[in-house]
Structures are given as C-alpha cells and as structure tokens.
Specification:
Layout: H1 11-14, H2 18-31, H3 37-51, E1 55-59, H4 62-72, E2 80-83, H5 90-97, E3 101-104, H6 116-122, E4 127-131, E5 155-157, E6 165-166, E7 169-170, E8 177-181, E9 195-199, H7 202-211, H8 233-242, H9 246-265, E10 275-276, E11 291-295, H10 298-307, H11 337-345, E12 346-349, H12 357-370
Parallel strand pairs: 2-3, 2-4, 5-8
Antiparallel strand pairs: 1-9, 6-7, 8-9, 10-11, 11-12
The structure holds pyridoxal-5'-phosphate.
Length: 373
C-alpha cells in the first residue's frame, strides 16, 4: 500500500506552532482563569483586528455563533430565514431551533453558493434574515444585495471562509454579523470546539456578549433568555497562537489549488466531463478550506481512491431541504435541483498546505487510473 494521503492530517501542521501552543496552554493552566477572561478578550481583539472590524465575540462553536447571531437579531417564531440547501446542517438547524422557518434558494451550480438573483427572488414578506454560506472557503456573491439597505439583515456563515474576500472586501464586511467556526478542520482550528461572531455594530456586539452568558448583565440579572455560549480560555489562547499563521496556510492551500488546476487541465478528465474542478469565477480570494470537484461516478471513484490510500470526503451527501427533520417544510426531490446534483457529485480532495506536488499528482493520477486514462 503506498503512503496514505489523508483528507486532512492535523499532525502535519502541528510542529509549526506546537511549542507556542503548549506555552499558551501552560499559561492558562497556571492562571486557572478558564472561561472568558483576559485570554478570550485578547483573542477577540486579535480576531477583530485581523478582520478589520470593531467587534469579535468569542463563543462556544460555529453553530452557537449562528444561533446567538440570529437571537441577537430577534429571529423567532413566525419568521423565515433564507439560506442555502447545500451547507452543513447547522446553518438551517439554528433557524428551526429558534422556532423560525428555514427557507431555501437554490445554489449556483458553478460556485456551489447562493447567488443574487436566486436570493432576491426568494425574499418574501416574512424573511427576517438571510444567511449566505461561503462554502468551502469561497464567498457567496450576492452582488448589490450586500449593500442594499432594503434587504433583510444578512448573517454571513463564514464558518469555512475566514479571510476570504469578494471584490477586495473580506468576510465580515457584508452583513450585520459574521459567524466563524474554529472546529479543528477549519483553516483556523482550535483544540476542540470554538467559534466567534464578528460585527461592526456596537449595540449588536453588546447584545451578543449578554446572550452568550444567559442574557445576564451584570451576572445573575437576566434581561433576556440567552444561553451558555462562552468560549474557553484554553481555546482562545491556542487560537491566538495560530491566527498569525492563517494567511500563510491559506496561501499554501491556494498554491495547491492552482497545482490541481494545472494537473486536471492536462489530465483528459475535464474535457470528457469526468471531473469538474472548482471554478474560480468569483472575483475574490478563495481560501480553499475544501477543494471540491464534481466527479462522475463519485461514490465508486471514492472507494477506488480509498483503496489507493487517498482520503476524500463528501460534503454533503444530502441537501438540507430533504433532511428528515425538515419533512414538515413539505419539500420533495427536485425542489432545488442544483443543490441535489451537487450532493450527488461533490468530492473533496486533500488540499492542506503541507501536501507537496507529488501527493497532488498522485491524487490526479489515481482519478485518471479509475477512468483508465
Ligand atoms: C458552513 C458551516 N456552518 C456552520 C458550521 C458549524 O460550526 P461548528 O462545527 O463549529 O459548530 C460549520 C462547521 O462545522 C460549517 O461548515
């Protein structure tokens, strides 16, 4: 069996920051200040500065970032929140948890993301917020909608896209609030669960800070019902160590994506319709949290690659509108055909910056081998 090429090997990156992370962890352990506090404040300041925003509020996960952002905007029963059917479950799950209804617009099959025309057509009288997901690390191009004062509030789901840009503007500058996940597989991963909500709006930031501690200010005086959405000091300390490395890692991912594009261009796979590499049609920087191709006979190909020691993932095997828990929404197959097709064809290939050209060449050669090219 040749050397495995896993979809992601977090250990391959560890040496770059291990000593600094352990020193930060030791500092927190010695302080015994374990939740929120100075470490979280310091990381929030670093993150806000990185994003060029005034406020970043550390929370317990990307899911809780979305949940608390919608709570802060007052989303509740009777409201609808418009989003994509092609995302991680949390994007729509948080809407339902607040008693509101997820509504979907189909994706652009080229970018896998929502687009302006589709979203505008789906906005209705009950649309209380819009969640564009910057899937795989590329920003959803909602065009003029991002600057439209008549549009419902926009909550960017930048869980996979911290640092991505659209026409020179970074994630975080396109809506009322922006939600980030630091789940370990994200480009900036914590040593466990963590997330953040970033905003320019001081009143919203204040409300987010209150909601993450059960709506209390000061402690034990509860103005509204929030939750425990606090960020641990250990996670904040580790994230502060890793944040300065984020852009370098993104550059490594972009270089690997460019290398894949060259390899696929000379492979014979693209013109035969067997592989469609991710399109760089959006004017902006894609940070390639995932490198997702469309692949013919995806599931059989995946098994073939696994036999060669090559790890892949399917993001996502089923669209949100067809999840059993959303049966009450009344959707059926065919309602959002582009999302459904993406679920049948999308395949994430190894892309992490530590992978060298030989590994990428092996991945493409294995796909060619599968198709006998
Ligand atoms: C698009 C998207 N939204 C939300 C989330 C939720 O983030 P978390 O896993 O940190 O709760 C994730 C990540 O898992 C995601 O990829």
């Amino acid at each position: 069996m040749p050397t495995p090429i896993p979809i992601l090997d977090l250990k391959a990156q560890l040496a770059q920051y291990r000593d600094a992370a352990l020193a930060a962890i030791t500092r927190v352990v010695d302080s015994q200040s374990l939740i929120l506090g100075a470490e979280v404040k310091a990381f929030e300041a670093d993150l806000a500065a990185y994003m060029g925003l005034e406020h970043a509020v550390g929370v317990s996960s990307g899911t809780d970032a979305l949940l608390v952002a919608l709570m802060a905007l007052g989303v509740g029963p009777g409201d609808e929140v418009l989003t994509t059917p092609f995302s991680f479950f949390a994007t729509a799950g948080v809407v339902a948890r607040l008693g509101a209804t997820p509504r979907f617009a189909d994706i652009d099959p080229v970018t896998f993301n929502l687009d302006e025309a589709g979203v505008r057509a789906a906005i209705g009288p009950k649309t209380r917020a819009i969640i564009p997901v910057h899937l795989f690390g590329q920003m959803a191009d909602l065009g003029g909608l991002y600057d439209d004062p008549q549009a419902p509030p926009i909550v960017e789901d930048a869980a996979q896209a911290l640092g991505a840009t659209l026409r020179g503007r970074m994630t975080g500058h396109h809506g009322a609030a922006t939600c980030i996940s630091f789940y370990p597989t994200k480009n900036l991963g914590a040593f466990g669960d963590a997330g953040a909500v970033a905003t320019t709006d001081p009143a919203l930031a204040e409300r987010l800070r209150m909601l993450r501690v059960h709506g209390a200010k000061p402690k034990y005086f509860h103005h509204e019902v929030g939750g425990n959405f606090r960020l641990d000091a250990l996670q904040a300390a580790v994230l502060a160590v890793k944040l300065p490395l984020l852009d370098g890692w993104a550059a490594g991912r972009q270089a690997n994506a460019a290398r894949y594009a060259e390899l696929f261009a000379g492979s014979g796979l693209v013109e035969r319709g067997l592989v469609t590499p991710p399109a760089a049609t959006v004017d902006g920087a894609h940070v390639f949290n995932q490198y997702v191709i469309r692949a013919a006979r995806r599931d059989v190909l995946r098994a073939h690659l696994a036999e060669q020691g090559i790890g892949t993932m399917v993001y996502y095997p089923g669209p949100l509108h067809l999840q059993p828990c959303f049966a009450g929404l009344g959707h059926g197959p065919g309602d959002f055909p582009a999302a459904e097709e993406a679920c049948a064809e999308a395949l994430a290939l190894p892309i992490q910056p530590e992978l060298g050209p030989d590994a990428l060449a092996r991945v493409v050669a294995a796909i060619r081998g599968f198709h006998r090219l």
